[in-house]
């Protein structure tokens, strides 16, 4: 009897030229990890570098089989060209167009951001990006196109590189201050969006009442660390990294792979407080909403609002209903319920502790109000969040 002994394939050595300093890149790495766990493992070579780093000396003695890289400068492109090994690009810059490229769909991202702000009634729009990155330019173009289709115009601010100086913040603050209000702003990614929120604080521009800000990447640590928490579009980085790894595996096996762009759509738009408003041109309503948000953690009522707004309750309620479709009291409750939803999802605080945190005297009353708002009790809502995905 003949016994067939399969020939064990040598382990592939793959270099990853992907930074680890931001959520998007870490998501790509997770996608690569997911692929190699499901298939034959690779020997991974990952150096410490930034997105624009041109020092690839850590690859000097590397002799491997393939590369997955974000090729965003000419030096990296030249180095990879000289190596001559199978490579998959992860950058929209397309500095090596002969390579296959897996990239998040910037057209969809730009249009989703525009639709998110248009749905909230904004009529003035702006985009803040970084022209040294092709993906940022593309997002700004598609955002502006969608805004133009809706019959509006869009102002653009192009940052000079990755500076984080006070002068940059002051320049951004001056730009934000001059924008018509209220305005909806898309930032090219979350880190730029955080700079914008700081610029709004420096300029005395309230978020989201006067300027709504949305980012990209949904870096949950940054988005929830910011004040107010940042709305963001969540790209499918896991699928992007996974697809790149699959293509590289095909190339290393000698199978043909198309050199074009393999585009991956984003997953969803995550709404947080930085855009959680409806554009209101009525100054009294806008000021009242701003006051309510600023004091949402306190035990406030309509009388507290009226002490700041020189109108009768009937007149203010009439303006609220016209602008937002709800009364002043209903707005107070709505904002508190959104705070309660966040605390239920993001903390393990007791209901009594949450009630004290957001200005309810009694946890029982808070629970009754929440059940009317959400259709289920706070406890049931929290239990539902802990259910495994199916």
Automatic annotation (TrEMBL):
SUPFAM superfamilies: Homeodomain-like, Periplasmic binding protein-like I
Keywords: DNA-binding, Transcription, Transcription regulation
The HTH araC/xylS-type domain, residue ranges: 286-384
Gene Ontology MF: a single term: DNA-binding transcription factor activity
Keyword Transcription regulation: yes
CDD domains for this protein: PBP1_XylR
Keyword Lyase: no
InterPro entries (UniProt xref): Homeodomain-like_sf, HTH_AraC, LacI/GalR-like_sensor, Peripla_BP_I, XylR_PBP1
Pfam families: HTH_18 (PF12833), PBP1_XylR (PF22177), Peripla_BP_3 (PF13377)
Alphabetical list of PANTHER family matching this protein: LACI-RELATED TRANSCRIPTIONAL REPRESSOR, XYLOSE OPERON REGULATORY PROTEIN
Name this protein carries in UniProt: XylR family transcriptional regulator
